[in-house]
Specification:
heterotrimer; A mainly alpha; B mainly alpha; C alpha/beta; B: mainly alpha; MetI-like fold; 12 helices; C: alpha/beta; six-stranded mixed β-sheet; globular
Chain lengths: ~375, ~325, ~325
């Protein structure tokens, strides 16, 4: 009710004439909107008071609902129905954005909060070999993740980059190039578990049933990373102005050197950014590694032979099948998750920095 | 008399006029490498199809006694296909309207300077590994939902088959609805990113024409932006669906699966998905069981392939239409 | 309009920049240049028949050239002689094939898939389209400057100049490289403006400076012929003037062919002018006539040319 009083002066300026004859109208700008947001917030707070403990989620959701409904109702009274609809849309769209930030904040907060229980040196320096109950670490998982992701990058970057070079520099609009473009699309859509099954089936042919190795995992991830690298590189290569290629040809520079020394350096910032983001994508893959690299208790440095633990699989195993006492195992899972999130955040930041410092100054 | 007139001391025109190393070898190597890489894409996909088929085939021809249950493949994979499509469709239903709103917020409502940073936040959502979403879903979201939302749905919406109250409501929260909500969070960035792109591409003229008629911001969006971006939004949603269909870990961690077809999304009896079933069964399987799992993987591949193909068809039709 | 254009002959261009740069703008200077053969034909030696083939190296003889892109014929039946140490201008309406023809002189048009030619382009006894001739080798001898300045954005000013030599894997000692940079930049009238910031990116220069950098880059690989495809169309009038002065200077060393939309420019700088025209869209472009520039702009042999230069075209 205090809400209506707040807006009384503004409503007073309105004359009850035909809506279409006015060019000035009552407006809900500034202080009015502020009041609605504030009131919603307070009502949201009231919603958890009876239960006695702070319920953040309910607070936010009730606040958003009151805000959306309140904005519409007040605007309908103070302004016009058309304005009210407009304000309703604004309120909904803004609330949707706020709503989406909830899981993001919750995930990050939970991972940091629960992961910090085992965010210690022991976790990063020890394996799970011979560990029963508390203690232990994920050193072997970090080693496995680095080896498998490194191999994947080693395979997928040249594979993807040369494919992109073919599509942009050689293929033209030919049938083969168009077919490859379509197949890259298909590859992008391969479910990660299917990529894992493929790598497993491939190595079964070579090594017999039950094969597990880091290499098989890297092959599975290569299948997932390559199309991402192709797409990113292709897009960047197409952004290189044709005039630069022509300038190079006109100097009597062969095509391959034009590509290697002019086109690639011009596009390198975008390509590297794309590669780093692709690494960030595959480093968190779990399912394909579960069926190819499996899980081991100790460190395995040899990707050609035997099971190799990675951080995501470690996280999954420790949470889904905890050893006794479960809390120790689950703490390890959260610590591994925190490590993964940190790695992904570092890669993301690296990509941003790379793209800004490597960009040639001549290109926008 | 006249020898060389160029300012540099190049040799006088002679038989060597058009000679010299012109990088033919390098060209051949480079062309070969890139053509080889492109051909390898083709070979890889052919290999994926071949190996999955080859390893999946024994399911139908092999000795059934190796399996723990000897039901037919169709009755084995049926509930999984149902669960996969049902849960993904739910996720899509939840994610799409929110994704459109978020995309509109970034493209048309947020301050111009902020929109880049806001887009970055959404991209981070896409970069969080699925296993992290999985343990967050079971550790944080499932308890909250089973305490608040599910009893409420059971009480107030029990007349709907999805929330029917004839079965006990899950107290662990490890239900299809929880999984669908987590999947919605995971696919939302994909739909948002593509929608945002097409919304930003709305021709200024269309928007200005609408503004010139005295339209409010929402009317501009309804008249100019949404119709223009429709095909982009649909193809984004289809790509998100493709991602949800293949998502493994979040489902495998959160869901409490049972064998069968279940419509009710808030109970302890849930249809599993193909991908999660593979992840759960594979480490324990051997012999023909592995072949059967691979065969289900092939089914999943075909489903996602179909969905992605439709998405691309819509996108291509929409964009060429917009150009014309 | 064309009458006044015709009167602006090269030596009348205001040479006030010559006090700062080592270039010499007028005809007398050409004649007294001790490095030059005094018999070199120039625009000023009016007694010489500009149309007569000059028996000097680097003359280009084009015979019955047809250019195709796939099924589409872009240029039909062009024959001409391009004399060295002179500037030949190609003019004509948009789409008349003049740029395509220019690009065929160093096989740059082959960058587009499906391009091929019939006929011959002979320079120093070599047919550029003869069997076994590599377009890469052709382009080292026949350089090109483009419509829009296109310095390599990843390279410094000095590296841009050296790009051609370096990318063709000629190892150069540091002093040699520095010498080539200075020589080429001086040749392009740019040295004084950039000598203190050679390590700055080429894109930090103004448009006109960038275009002169591109010219320096082109002459650094010691070509015999310079092709210029509307080199001033993206530049302001002051920069245009600088490039035109440079062209007059360069023609003492190179055989220059320029495509231009600007008839005054053709009249100001060129010795001979060829007029291309097209019968309609989809039809091939043809060389209508070619003659001394003064003749083309005062008393052309064809009605079509007269219509075009007096603005009665289209």
């Amino acid at each position: 009710m205090t809400l209506a009083a707040e807006h009384q002066p503004e409503s007073d300026t309105e004359s009850p004439t035909n809506d279409n004859d006015r060019i000035t109208s009552g407006s809900l700008a500034g202080r009015g909107m502020f009041a609605i947001v504030g009131a919603s917030f307070v009502i949201g707070a009231l919603s958890w008071l009876p239960s006695g403990s702070i319920n953040w989620a309910r607070w936010v959701i009730v606040t958003l609902l009151v805000y959306v409904a309140g904005t519409y109702a007040v605007a309908r009274i103070v302004e016009s129905p058309r304005q009210a609809t407009d304000r309703l849309a604004t309120a909904i769209v803004t609330s949707a954005f706020a709503l989406v930030l909830l899981p993001l904040i919750s995930v990050v907060w939970t991972v940091v909060d629960k992961g910090s229980n085992r965010f210690d040196w022991q976790f990063y320096s020890e394996t799970m070999r011979g560990v029963v109950g508390e203690g232990g670490g994920a050193y072997h998982g970090i080693v496995g993740t680095l080896i498998i992701t490194g191999l994947t990058t080693l395979f997928a970057v040249p594979f993807g980059l040369f494919t992109a070079i073919y599509l942009v520099e050689y293929g033209g609009n030919g049938r083969f190039a168009r077919a490859v473009t379509g197949l890259v699309d298909v590859m992008t859509g391969i479910p990660s578990i299917v990529a894992g099954l493929f790598a497993y089936a491939l190595f079964v042919l070579i090594d017999g049933p039950g094969h597990r190795s880091g290499l098989a995992g890297a092959i599975a991830l290569t299948l997932l990373m390559t199309p991402v690298v192709v797409r990113a590189s292709e897009e960047m290569l197409r952004l290189v102005p044709n005039e630069l290629r022509e300038a190079s040809y006109a100097l009597g520079v062969p095509k391959w050197k034009t590509i290697a020394k002019i086109v690639l350096p011009t596009a390198i910032a975008g390509i590297l950014t794309g590669v780093v983001l692709a690494i960030a994508r595959v480093i968190g893959e779990t399912a394909p590694l579960l069926v190819t690299a499996g899980l081991a208790q100790g460190t395995n440095w040899n990707p050609l032979d035997g099971r190799m633990t990675t951080l995501p699989v470690y996280t999954y195993q420790a949470y889904k099948f905890p050893t006794l006492p479960p809390s120790a195992s689950i703490d390890r899972a959260w610590a591994a998750a925190l490590t993964l999130v940190i790695i992904v955040a570092v890669l993301f930041t690296t990509a941003r920095i790379l793209s800004s410092i490597l960009k040639p100054q001549g290109l926008k | 008399m006249i020898t060389d007139t160029a300012p540099q001391s190049s040799p006088a025109p002679d038989d060597d006029f058009l000679g010299g190393d012109t990088g033919k070898l390098g060209d051949r190597v480079f062309h070969g490498l890139s053509l080889g890489a492109a051909a390898l894409i083709l070979a890889t996909l052919a290999a994926v199809a071949t190996f999955l088929f080859k390893e999946g085939l024994p399911t139908f021809t092999g000795d059934k006694s190796e399996l723990d249950n000897t039901e037919s493949f169709v009755s084995y994979v049926g509930p999984l296909v149902f669960g996969t499509i049902y849960i993904s469709a739910l996720a899509l239903l939840i994610a799409t309207p929110i994704a459109i709103a978020v995309a509109l917020y970034i493209s048309h409502y947020s301050p111009k300077k902020l929109s880049h940073t806001l887009g970055y936040f959404i991209d981070i959502l896409a970069a969080i590994p699925s296993v992290v979403y999985g343990i967050w879903g079971i550790g944080v979201l499932a308890p909250i939902l089973s305490r608040s939302l599910y009893p409420w749905l059971d009480d107030h919406a029990g007349f709907l088959p999805f929330f029917g109250s004839d079965v006990n409501v899950s107290t662990s929260g490890r239900t299809m609805l929880t999984v669908a909500i987590v999947l919605a969070v995971m696919i939302l960035p994909i739909i948002t990113a593509i929608s945002r792109e097409v919304f930003l591409q709305t021709p200024r003229l269309h928007e200005e024409a609408s503004l010139a008629l005295g339209a409010t911001r929402w009317e501009v969006i309804r008249q100019a932006v949404l119709p223009y971006g429709r095909s982009g939004v649909i193809s984004g949603a289809m790509l998100g669906l493709g991602r949800a269909l293949g998502e493994t870990m979040a489902v495998a961690i959160i869901l409490s699966p049972a064998d069968g077809y279940f419509w009710n999304v808030i109970t302890n009896s849930n249809s599993n998905t193909i991908a999660a079933n593979i992840a759960l069964q594979f480490p324990e399987s051997s012999g023909l069981e592995v072949n059967r799992l691979i065969a289900t993987g092939l089914v999943l591949f075909i489903i996602t392939f179909g969905v992605n193909a439709i998405a691309r068809k819509i996108a291509n039709a929409g964009f060429s239409g917009a150009d014309g | 309009m064309n009458r006044s254009a015709r009167l602006i002959t090269p030596h009348l261009i205001n040479p006030h920049q010559s006090t700062q740069t080592p270039t010499i703008q007028n005809g007398e200077a050409h004649m007294t240049d001790s490095l030059r053969d005094t018999a070199t034909p120039t625009a000023q030696s009016a007694a010489v028949d500009l149309n007569a083939p000059v028996d000097l190296p680097n003359r280009i003889d084009v015979t019955d050239l047809n250019i195709f892109y796939g099924d589409f014929q872009a240029v039909e039946g062009v024959s001409m002689t391009i004399n060295p140490r002179s500037i030949t201008a190609l003019i004509g309406p948009s789409g008349c094939g003049k740029s395509t023809f220019l690009r065929s002189l160093n096989r740059m048009h082959e960058v587009i898939h499906g391009a091929y030619v019939q006929g011959s382009v002979v320079i120093n006894g070599h047919d550029l389209y003869g069997p076994g001739v590599d377009p890469v080798a052709v382009r080292r001898k026949i350089g090109m400057v483009f419509q829009r300045p296109n310095p390599f954005p990843t390279m410094s000013i000095a590296d841009n100049v050296l790009a051609g030599k370096r990318l063709n894997s000629r190892r150069m000692s540091k002093p040699d490289a520095a010498e080539l940079v200075e020589k080429s930049l001086r040749g392009a009238n740019l040295w004084n403006e950039v000598k203190d910031r050679l390590d700055k990116p080429g894109s930090s220069l103004s448009g006109g400076q960038q275009q002169r950098l591109c010219i320096a880059r082109a002459i650094a690989v010691s070509p015999d012929v310079l092709l210029m495809d509307e080199p001033c169309s993206a530049l302001d009038p002051i920069s245009t003037l600088a490039i035109e002065e440079l062209m007059l200077d360069l023609k003492r060393s190179y055989n220059i062919v320029i495509v231009t939309h600007n008839m005054q420019q053709a009249a100001r700088v060129s010795d001979r002018t060829g007029f291309f025209n097209i019968k309609g869209t989809g039809k091939p472009g043809k060389l209508i006539e070619m003659d001394a520039t003064e003749k083309i702009f005062s008393n052309p042999g064809e009605q079509e040319t007269q219509d075009y230069i007096t603005g009665r075209f289209g």
